[in-house]
Amino acid sequence: MVRVTSIGFPNGRIETTKANNEMITLKDVAKRAGVSPSTVSYVLSGKKKVKEETRSKIYEAVKTLNYSPNKVARSLKTNSTNTIGVMVNNLSDMFFIDILKAIESTAYEYKYNVILCDAVNSEEREISNLRSLLGQRIDGLIFAGTGKNKKLNLDRLGIPVVTLDRSAGSGSGSIYVDNVKGGELATEHLIQAGKLPIALITYSTLISTFFDRMYGYRKTLEKYGLPYNEDLVVVTDFGTYNEGYNAVRELLKRKVEFQSLFAVNDMLALGAMRALVEEHYKIPEDISVVGYDDIPIAKLFLPALTTVSQPQYQIGRKATELLIRTINKEPIEEAEKSIVITPELIVRETA
Amino acid sequence: MVRVTSIGFPNGRIETTKANNEMITLKDVAKRAGVSPSTVSYVLSGKKKVKEETRSKIYEAVKTLNYSPNKVARSLKTNSTNTIGVMVNNLSDMFFIDILKAIESTAYEYKYNVILCDAVNSEEREISNLRSLLGQRIDGLIFAGTGKNKKLNLDRLGIPVVTLDRSAGSGSGSIYVDNVKGGELATEHLIQAGKLPIALITYSTLISTFFDRMYGYRKTLEKYGLPYNEDLVVVTDFGTYNEGYNAVRELLKRKVEFQSLFAVNDMLALGAMRALVEEHYKIPEDISVVGYDDIPIAKLFLPALTTVSQPQYQIGRKATELLIRTINKEPIEEAEKSIVITPELIVRETA
DNA sequence: TTGAAAGCGATACCAC
DNA sequence: GTGGTATCGCTTTCAA
Fold it and tell me: Boundaries of each HTH cro/C1-type domain copy (chains A, B) (predicted)?
């Protein structure tokens, strides 16, 4: 069924016509075309057959009046807004940019709008944003929030929710990247290059994402019969560039030797690299570095960062499609509801 | 006047209560509290005095029913959605990230929602997105679109518009960064360091932003009695990293000598730096580089990029405040409607 | 194939 | 202070 969501304006004009800035309504169109409001609605929604003659009369009126349907009124009646909400943990985290781009783009194709909320690492703000989104009557939610909100039960929001890469309640679907695998990939690469021992810069182990990456590191060391040395790991509070920088300084202070370094996200890796360069280490000759995420600048960096890639665009697109299909009550097989994406090691210049 | 936009849920719960997933309405609350719907409305909006006793009865009912007002209905009635639209030219352009963050954050403070649209460099998409936003009845728009859409008259959208850094119609306000000044700053810095001649990598001179930066470059050369040499300038199509890279290759092919390079945006500068490094030029010893924008990674880069800063967070915040004040019909002096922000040269490691 | 009219869930005017 | 009710602009059932 074709649903006309947006009525074309003549000549690409996007303007109001009524002088007093009042909106043209469906009634105005009906009057002008000499038909009833319902008929206009039928024509515009394409939900009922209407005689060709009346149709064109109506289109005519729509054009000359430059009519644009009021989606608020439609929403009230149909109880659906054609809008999805997106909650990200932190917009500064470049990891979300391509995801957001993909969501916006996919939503656009399906004629959905996107309302954006940033939790800025705050659980309160997360809740408060969520409340607002729900009040706006969004049709569904893509959730990539703080991941540490215990009060939050995404299954009881009353709308479909797709979660990204966090396990804060299952929701009606989730896109999950195998972080253990990613940790293994990175570690294995460094082991095979003989760059031992491997230092680890990680981030809150309370968040499963990072716990898993770290677990992949440990598991792989074990697999190769290598010791796990706590002196080689630094745990940071937020996973930022500055913390990556400080982590290396800390490592250096500890006077432990290491030939390579695995950071559980790219920002940490970049910060670490700065510290290494300042101390005149050559990358990768002296110390190899592997990051995680493949944020947009990873490949642009000097030297280009070797990293574990999470296909961000794909994640965003799949999440949006899954969400919209759920909103539309399309039958979705159980297997499709939980999409697991396999990370990939992108070898560039730092390892 | 205090406007209660969001009703607190007890214990931080965000859940539906009616088993059949039906929404609780104001009428339900009224019935439960034994009052009329209008009284409930008065209490929740705080627009009329209501006896303390009835008030608490109503709050009581709101709590136990876990009522959340339907903003769609409110919007229909009040003809305002508490939502602002944001149109950016391209989300991949990291220049917009902090702006977006600021917009989101400021909107949050004022209890506004943000609907995000990405024109992805396409004028068609820009128009079509705009149409959709207007259909959604947004209260106002922050516009930082392609800047080349001739069909677009932002003054006739029927809602307040604040434009960012483009001159596509004045709108009801604009935040303008003095790009000529920025071009001067960069050029002057290089001249005074004696890094002559200065190559220029620029981007569509049809967009005033970039035309102005280039003009600042020419003007400054003139001021110092230096020749303007066309062989030293490369004009790119989109201002991307890859184009910056290719621009340097082009410059090298032309066999013109240059000791420094001014790129009209940071992405071009970063791409240029890559090409220089690949050709074994040392930055800044052999060739100095100055960018423009101060995108988030500029200071993180290796070497850290010297660049002309546009205070992105401030731009976003001011734009949002100006917009919301306009929406609320607050009196705004003519001078405040056009905010000019002075760029600043941030000297780091590349020049 | 078309039209009349009820109603979505708020707000706000006007009575009392 | 409180309540009845028309209204916002659309969709949709039912009847013609």
Answer: 24-68
Which nucleotide across the nucleic acid strands is nearest to B28, CA versus C1'?
Answer: C9
**Proximity of residue B78 CB to strand C below 7 A:** yes
Q: Assess whether B23 (CB) lies less than 7 A from strand C.
A: yes
Q: Which residues of B touch A149 (CB under 8 A)?
A: none
**Using CA atoms, how far apart are residues B12 and B25, in angstroms rounded to an integer?**
20
List phi, psi (to 5°) of A109.
-60, -40
B70 CB contact with strand C at below 7 Å: yes
Amino acid, res. B88: V
Q: Write out the two tokens for B214.
A: 């280039």
- Sort out which chain A residues have CB atoms less than 8 A from B132's CB and list them: 5-6, 111, 113
* Tokens coding A192: 């095979």
Q: Please, what CATH class does the domain formed by A179-310 belong to?
A: alpha beta
Phi, psi of B91 (to 5 degrees): -65, -25
CATH C-level class of A2-78: mainly alpha
pLDDT in tens, B225-239: 999 999 999 999 988
* Residues in A touching B149 (Cβ below 8 Å): none
Instruction: Per residue of chain A (351 residues), give pLDDT as tens.
Output: 222 223 333 334 555 555 455 689 999 999 999 999 999 999 998 888 889 999 999 999 999 998 989 999 999 999 999 999 999 988 888 888 899 999 999 999 999 999 988 998 888 889 888 888 988 999 999 998 877 776 677 777 889 999 986 554 456 788 888 999 999 999 999 999 999 999 999 988 888 889 999 999 999 999 999 999 999 999 999 889 999 999 999 999 999 999 999 999 999 999 999 999 999 999 999 999 999 999 999 999 999 999 999 999 999 999 999 999 999 988 888 888 888 889 999 999 999
**CA atoms in the 13 A half-sphere facing the CB of B347:** 8
Phi, psi (degrees; rounded to nearest 5) at B260: -155, 175
User: What type of residue sits at position B112?
Assistant: Y
State CA A185 to chain mean position distance: 23
For residue A77, say whether its CB is under 7 Å from any atom of strand C.
Answer: yes
Q: Which of B155, B158, B159, B144 is nearest to B102 (CA)?
A: B144
Q: Nearest nucleotide by C1' from B45 CA?
A: C11
A12 by Cβ neighbours in 10 Å (0-12 / 13-18 / 19+) ranks as: middle
Give Cα separations from B304 to A132, A239, B53, B215, B271 (angstroms): 40, 20, 64, 26, 14
Q: Alpha-carbon distance B184 to A318, whole Å?
A: 46
Nearest-by-Cβ selection for B118 from A5, A101, A130:
A101
Give the burial class of A331: count Cβ atoms within 10 A of its Cβ; 0-12 exposed, 13-18 middle, 19 or more buried. exposed
For residue B333, give the DSSP letter: -
Q: Which chain A residue is nearest to residue B7, measuring alpha carbons?
A: A131
Residue with tokens 């250096």: A252
Domain boundaries, chain A: 2-78, 179-310
User: Cβ of B75 and A72 within 8 Å?
Assistant: yes
Q: Are B134 and A14 a contacting pair at CB < 8 A?
A: yes
- Across-strand partners of A13? none
Contact B108 A125 (CB under 8 A): yes
Cβ neighbours of residue B244 closer than 8 Å, sequence gap 6 or more:
B201, B236, B263, B267, B268, B269, B270, B271, B272, B273, B274, B275
What positions of strand D are covered by protein, i.e. any atom < 7 Å from a CB? 1-5, 7-13
